[in-house]
Design the sequence.
């Protein structure tokens, strides 16, 4: 990385754009660096690749039908619930919870399917990043329709000006529920949202006063929702004079957001989060981050421009960052599927359980800070879960053990053309033509984050070249077992 | 033949330190097994022998209780099940009213020998018919309208200091399922271990471990990042436990009279017996038999599964007895729900509610416990449970695992007298 801090965020020189750089970009900006994507990116060049990965508009995932049905039925259901009494009421509430649980699983699976498509992986991950800043969680929001809507809001504004995104988030019904904005009223403000807005969304601790929070909470009074629609309840709203960041006036919520973006800390806050999510679990020095922050505030806080600047910078491609970040469970899972060319199976048990055991359920981060990430992903239980996930992808689906609804879902997915859910007995037969050296090189290059991993390649070659098994089927078996171990290795947990 | 490595580790810390330097298991593989097996024994001082152990057997998919424990004197049973009912003449009679499915001969033998308790009609209020949710209710022991983040066994680990083994890495819970069962999730972190249910030979397990071990050496031509070193250490640590477990499994000789049948399920029980016999300090084991979701053509599938269950459990019990471990172990089955009393048009049964469960061991009060469900039901109506499953858990906790059940179940449940 260049020593001069003013240089570090400038564009990577073209001469340094090669397959290794493309792999680094693809693994970090998206989930995996498959050979075809690497080839395409290398040929296209950095600028065109960035244009493609971070387009003007993020593709938006479709709303699962069970989620939209839930949304449509809500008004009638609420009516029914109001009239019900005693056990009937309890029964209705129970039904609603179960429906919500099912819809949340659908939402999770549908989102994973969407994000697993290589052409939309980078923008899906970017929205996932935004959702790790603008956190809402299923445990508190409960309603998957609102969660979908929140993600949809993040997707709509993913590459526009950040202040517009923040204002949209302040009106997101999921957020209004998650941070108790619906409890915030004139005369009795609830400060939860105002505090997190400054601390976790825009500025970071130490960059606002308690007074700023108190006054801002008043500006956000009366933010209400009804069946997934935002409205300002005028009678609950405090339209009086407030002073926030030394500006005084009859400030509304949007004014507070604009004032916050004028604070010096606003320029570096999101870049700081960006570094933590995409680049390194060790924060950069303030003087390294500062130039990016001032550049971004001078560029109207445009999110797409920030993505292009960040992912195209010398800093991002610096050698010390390559292959040094621990993959999140979602990245590990989707990366495996893409690199093995497998589909997301329509089986909640095969998706929800492993993700839960690895420690990351999309749509349900543990608290308002989002996921801690880094080494906190790894302990003996989560590492075991990662290894088991790999084994499960290399073992046949034992269909006789599936439940009836799982079999139905499987047939439907197969009818729709999804069939590759596991690597079969015939997997890797194409590689069995290669000699051991070439096959080891192929697997190591395909899966490992480092260009050269001579020790690993050597171990793998030794393993492959044992001469007691010579038939192509036995060779393919050995290749599969070699791949399994490679995907379970410490190195593969990194990107 | 390679000469023995001069630096033999004597402690786990030493072992890991050497591993971190790139001298892994392979470097002293001739010595590793004895070192590891010895440490297994060392971690289990004499008092460990008295420790009670619980083996949980999940019957995944929803076991049909009515065709497991058959109410052969109840006309309603034959009315509700015109094609699926077990003929009275075929039932293996236990009492004047109830008997087992003909595939459960081995279980009847156990009951007659005083080693099997059957608790009838176990369920919970406001039953849920989703596999996913109802399994969660059983595993977390939550009321059906509440979501708990932790499992009941995990809370047992949370609440018991004697659940923590001498060697902090030895697992308190061990499962032979694809992932850690939700039951094991505690508020705190507890060492648990999973045996892959993807049946592979010992050779393939060994192969996998050795390869991983060789990969974990890191690269000599560049300094590994801090994260890489951290991952290598975590993995090496897991491999130590794994090697320990697999060494035990590979060297295990079941008692000749145990006569385990050939099936994945019975293999998992054999492995559990091996680990219990090796005096691992593990308190709770978990295995699973799936395929009970019999919506269509139930008869043959259910017969096969009950046979597998019955023969597997009986072999396991014979094995434990031959090793004089049967006093220490109770084995309990559970399933997310029973099935609908009325059969459906496809000669199967749909999701239902309550069902009987089995508790096996030489310390049980053998026999049929609790009350049978009333079958005076309209078509497609469900059973009403008579024993709350949390009373079964409370009994296990209070009377077997010696842990205050109120702390684990967050409520007070009257214990039963099956143990």
Sequence:
């Amino acid at each position: 990385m260049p020593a001069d801090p003013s240089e570090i965020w400038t564009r990577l020189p073209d001469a340094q754009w090669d397959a290794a750089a493309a792999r680094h970009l693809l693994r970090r900006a998206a989930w995996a660096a498959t050979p075809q994507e690497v080839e395409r990116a290398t040929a296209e060049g950095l600028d065109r690749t960035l244009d493609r990965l971070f387009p003007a508009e993020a593709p938006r995932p479709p709303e699962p039908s069970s989620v939209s049905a839930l949304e449509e039925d809500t008004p009638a259901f609420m009516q029914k619930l109001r009239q019900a009494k005693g056990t009937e009421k309890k029964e209705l509430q129970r039904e609603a919870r179960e429906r919500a649980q099912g819809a949340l699983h659908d939402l999770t699976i549908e989102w994973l399917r969407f994000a697993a498509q290589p052409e939309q992986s980078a923008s899906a991950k970017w929205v996932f990043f935004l959702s790790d800043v603008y956190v809402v969680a299923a445990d508190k929001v409960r309603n998957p329709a609102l969660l979908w809507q929140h993600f949809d809001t993040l997707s709509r504004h993913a590459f526009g000006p950040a202040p517009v995104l923040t204002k949209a988030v302040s009106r997101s019904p999921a957020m209004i529920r998650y941070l108790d904005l619906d409890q915030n009223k004139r005369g009795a403000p609830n400060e939860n949202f105002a505090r997190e807005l400054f601390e976790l969304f825009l500025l970071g601790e130490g960059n606002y006063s308690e007074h700023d929070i108190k006054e801002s909470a008043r500006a956000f009074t009366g933010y209400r929702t009804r069946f997934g629609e935002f409205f300002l309840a005028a009678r609950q709203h405090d339209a009086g004079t407030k002073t926030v960041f030394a500006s005084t006036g009859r400030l509304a919520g949007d004014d507070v957001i604009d004032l916050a973006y004028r604070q010096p800390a606003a320029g570096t806050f999101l870049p700081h989060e960006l570094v933590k999510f995409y680049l390194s679990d060790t924060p950069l020095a303030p003087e390294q981050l500062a130039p990016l922050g001032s550049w971004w505030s001078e560029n109207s806080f445009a999110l797409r421009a920030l993505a292009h600047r960040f992912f195209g910078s010398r800093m991002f491609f610096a050698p010390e960052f390559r292959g040094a970040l621990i993959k999140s469970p979602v990245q590990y899972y989707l990366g495996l599927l893409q690199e093995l060319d497998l589909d997301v199976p329509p089986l909640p048990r095969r998706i929800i359980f492993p993700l839960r055991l690895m420690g990351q359920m999309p749509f349900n981060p543990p608290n308002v800070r989002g996921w801690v990430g880094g080494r906190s992903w790894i302990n003996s239980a989560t590492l075991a879960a990662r290894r088991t996930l790999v084994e499960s992808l290399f073992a046949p689906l034992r269909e006789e053990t599936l439940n009836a609804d799982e079999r139905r879902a499987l047939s439907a997915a197969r009818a729709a053309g999804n069939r590759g859910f596991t690597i079969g007995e015939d997997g890797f037969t194409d590689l069995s033509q290669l000699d051991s050296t070439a096959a080891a090189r192929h697997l190591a290059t395909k899966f490992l984050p480092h260009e050269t991993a001579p020790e690993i390649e050597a171990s793998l070659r030794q393993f492959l070249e044992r001469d007691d098994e010579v038939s192509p089927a036995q060779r393919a078996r050995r290749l599969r077992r070699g791949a399994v171990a490679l995907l379970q290795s410490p190195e593969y947990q990194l990107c | 033949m390679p000469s023995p490595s001069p630096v033999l580790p004597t402690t786990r810390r030493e072992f890991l330190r050497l591993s971190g330097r790139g001298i892994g298991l392979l470097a002293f593989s001739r010595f590793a097994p004895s070192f590891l097996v010895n440490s297994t024994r060392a971690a289990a001082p004499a008092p460990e022998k008295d420790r009670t152990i619980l083996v949980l057997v999940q019957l995944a998919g929803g076991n049909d209780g009515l065709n497991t424990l058959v109410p052969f004197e109840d006309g309603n049973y034959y009315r509700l099940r015109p094609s699926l009912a077990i003929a009275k003449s075929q039932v293996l009679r236990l009492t004047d009213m109830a008997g087992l499915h003909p595939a459960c001969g081995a279980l009847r033998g156990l009951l007659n020998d005083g080693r099997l308790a059957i608790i009838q009609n176990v369920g919970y209020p406001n039953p849920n018919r989703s596999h996913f949710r109802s399994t969660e209710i059983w595993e977390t022991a939550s009321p059906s309208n509440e979501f708990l983040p932790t499992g009941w066994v995990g809370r047992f680990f949370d609440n018991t200091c004697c659940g923590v083994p001498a060697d902090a890495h030895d697992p308190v819970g061990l499962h032979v399922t694809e992932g850690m069962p939700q039951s094991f999730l505690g508020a705190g972190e507890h060492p648990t271990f999973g045996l892959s249910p993807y049946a592979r030979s010992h050779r393939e397990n060994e192969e996998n471990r050795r390869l991983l071990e060789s990969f974990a050496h890191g690269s000599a031509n560049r300094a590994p990042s801090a994260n890489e070193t951290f991952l290598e250490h975590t993995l090496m640590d897991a491999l130590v436990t794994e090697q320990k477990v697999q060494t035990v499994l590979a060297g295990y000789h079941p008692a000749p009279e145990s006569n385990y049948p050939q099936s994945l399920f019975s293999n998992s029980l054999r492995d559990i017996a091996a680990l219990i016999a090796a005096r691992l300090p593990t308190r709770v084991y978990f295995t699973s038999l799936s395929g009970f979701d019999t919506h269509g053509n139930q008869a043959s599938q259910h017969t096969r599964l009950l046979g597998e269950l019955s023969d597997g459990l009986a072999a396991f019990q014979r094995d434990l007895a031959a090793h004089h471990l049967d006093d220490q172990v109770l084995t309990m089955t559970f399933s997310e729900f029973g099935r609908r009393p009325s059969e459906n048009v496809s000669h199967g049964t749909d999701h239902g509610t309550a069902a009987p469960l089995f508790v096996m061991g030489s310390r049980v009060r053998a026999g049929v416990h609790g009350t049978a469900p009333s079958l005076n039901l309209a078509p497609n109506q469900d059973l009403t449970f008579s024993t709350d499953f949390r009373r079964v858990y409370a009994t296990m906790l209070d009377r077997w695992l010696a842990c205050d059940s109120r702390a684990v179940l967050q409520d007070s449940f009257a214990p039963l007298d099956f143990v």
